[in-house]
Design brief:
Elements: H1 2-15, E1 27-31, E2 34-41, H2 46-49, H3 52-63, E3 70-72, H4 76-87, E4 94-100, E5 105-115, E6 120-128, H5 137-151, E7 157-163, H6 167-175, E8 178-190, E9 194-198, E10 209-216
Parallel strand pairs: 6-7
Antiparallel strand pairs: 1-2, 2-4, 3-9, 4-5, 5-6, 7-10, 8-9, 8-10
Amino acid sequence: MDNYKSFIKETLNSYKCKSVCDEWKAIPIYQKEELIGFLKPVTFFYKKIHPEYISCICSWRTANPIGFANVFENNSSKTENWFDNVLLPREDRILFVIHSIEDIPLGHIGLSTFDFDNRSCEIDNVVRGVKDGHKGIMSCATTSLIAWGKRVLKLNDIYLRVLSDNLHAIEFYKRNRFAEQYDIPLYRQDSKDIVEWVYIENLNREPDRYYTYMKLI
């Protein structure tokens, strides 16, 4: 397990260009045999190469609240802080921005929550930010990420969690070979700046929402 854990951390860090010796990499997205875009990793030098990612992801997050188990007042400063202090420092997490063949950012998709013993992880942060045109690119991007995870990261299994009331997303994942496994109860928690729905073990009351846990088959 320790060897695989080190392998994952080193591989993800190399795609995020943590070292000055790392080469910039992208994953091609194909629709059948036609190249239609790229998965570009968010790197440690994103502010120099793609500073627009901050405003894009901020606006996409705000426009797609149904995809997230929390609600808060979002802004560019909070998004930048998330990039710099949450996303990039985590050695077992990576986010890719989905670019069209014309190099237009359209959305994002990532990997997280690695189980190193079982060589599995979860797909997360799947958002289509630009709704017009480029039909099918989200499915193709998902397929490309799965193929990369299997080939490069040597994953055995891939899972995801989706809010059970997000029926559109559940149908999308079913079309992309994910099957429902079970529901995870979530409970609402309110604080000053954020409302969250979280899992709390052995809480003796009716859940407020559920995650649907799905597995790639």
